[in-house]
Design a protein that fits this description.
- It is a single chain.
- Helix 2 packs across helix 9 and helix 4 runs parallel beside helix 5.
- Strands 1-2-3-4-6-8-9-10 form an 8-stranded parallel β-sheet.
- The protein has 14 helices and 10 strands.
- It is 45% helix and 11% strand.
- The protein has one domain: Divalent-metal-dependent TIM barrel enzymes (TIM Barrel, Alpha-Beta Barrel), CATH 3.20.20.150.
- The chain binds alpha-D-psicofuranose and manganese (II) ion.
């Protein structure tokens, strides 16, 4: 796409989903550094998410994590979001924190533990009914630490059985997004370690099951854009969990470690029509802001996705195709590099001004006084955090 008005229209209609847990305290297993003004409940998380949307105009959806965001009345939480100009997005199930899950959840050798895990997943679909959410995001920490610990195929059978039961419970407009992760917390086998395993399970399940690509969940050097292109071709790319990493699953701000990789991924999305709402690709963030201020970090992350998107949309696709078809390797590569090297910040500033927004979202947030207000008002109570 190179028509500027079409690029601007695409940028204005982009939707980036932010994670509720990104607004809470987080850290590593060594230390969680608390910050002042952090939300104490899901309502306050939504209040913060509304600030991100106010500053960027493209972040109206918030993913929830259950039980971290459990409330008595999910329909009420959904109404609260609506009043803020937001809506509730993917429901992230959590079958990794209970003591019962030491040997896994849906693939645990104990049928009682498997039942408990499946019941939680079914409960998440009930919550989706109340919130109007489309996506049930499933990530399983299941796996083994030692060779011989459990039967790899038996674990796949148990996983498959659980997925089928949950799939049957989905409504017509709901879907399962099955996330994969190479390792951690399991260090020998992981039951859904890669896109191929996720894809195979999703194929067996049917059209309402798709793969979610968390950019931090691969071995170093993995060509993530190939995976993205392949899944889009198959109609099986459900969405992204964006973040960036230097070493493993670092959960740093998307685009911070390798903006070129983010561009290459979004180029495949653009080229294969993945930005069109009908393809249903969810552009979610899944990050933790351990040492940086959280709300401006989420704003920065949204901007990083916007910048990579703008560059991807600026690729001269006709010239690229011609160069590819004629075997002109250098021209093809330089078409891509020209788009990547373009400074799209003035374009995005213009787009924001046309939407009635401040051209500099981080500055707008800083000037809003919100940070000072939450530091003053959110005193007492228990701060929300990853895992709590
Ligand atoms: C697992 O590492 C993961 O990426 C899953 O998406 C979880 O739900 C999320 O992180 C929690 O931070
Ligand atoms: Mn994730």
């Amino acid at each position: 796409m190179s028509d500027l008005s079409a690029v601007k229209a695409a940028l204005k209609s982009q939707v980036i989903e932010t994670p509720s847990w990104g607004y809470g305290n987080s850290g590593t297993r060594f230390k969680v550094f608390t910050q002042q003004g952090v939300p104490r409940d899901p309502f306050e998380k939504l209040d913060d998410a509304a600030q991100v949307h106010a500053a960027t105009g493209v972040a109206p959806v918030v993913s929830l994590h259950i039980p971290w965001d459990r409330v008595d009345d999910f329909a009420g939480l959904s109404r609260y979001a609506k009043d803020l100009g937001l809506r509730l997005g993917g429901i992230n199930a959590n079958v990794f924190q209970d003591d019962a899950y030491r040997l896994g959840s849906v693939a645990n050798p104990d049928p009682g533990v498997r039942r408990r895990a499946i019941d939680h997943l079914l409960e998440c679909v009930d919550i989706m009914d109340a919130t109007g959410s489309r996506d049930l995001k499933l990530w399983f920490a299941d796996g083994t630490n030692y060779p011989g610990q459990d039967d790899i195929v038996a674990r796949q059978d148990r996983l498959s059985h659980a997925l089928s039961e949950v799939y049957e419970r989905l409504g017509d407009d709901q879907r399962i997004l099955l996330e994969y992760k190479l390792f951690e917390p399991s260090f020998y086998t992981t039951d859904v370690p890669d896109w191929g395993t996720s894809y195979a399970h999703c194929l067996t399940l049917g059209d309402k099951a798709q793969v979610v690509v968390d950019t931090g969940h691969h071995a170093p050097g993995t060509n993530i854009e190939f995976i993205v292109a392949f899944l889009l071709r198959q109609g099986k790319l459900g969405g992204f969990d964006f973040n960036s990493r230097f070493y493993a699953d670092d959960d740093l701000m998307v685009g911070a470690a390798d903006p070129f990789q983010l561009f290459r991924i979004l180029h495949e999305v653009a080229k294969n029509d993945g930005f069109a709402p009908r393809t249903g690709v969810a552009f979610m963030l899944d990050q933790c802001h351990n040492i940086e201020a959280k709300i401006p970090a989420v704003i920065r992350s949204v901007m990083n996705v916007q910048e990579a998107t703008a560059k991807a949309l600026l690729v001269e696709t006709d010239v690229l195709r011609e160069a590819q078809n004629s075997g002109d390797v250098l021209t093809a590569n330089s078409v891509l590099m020209d788009a990547y090297n373009a400074d799209v910040r003035p374009l995005l500033a213009e787009v924001r001004q046309e939407q009635g927004l401040d051209p500099d979202p981080v500055a707008a947030y800083r000037a809003s006084g919100w940070q000072q207000r939450i530091v003053k008002e959110r005193v007492g109570g228990v701060q929300a955090g990853w895992g709590a």
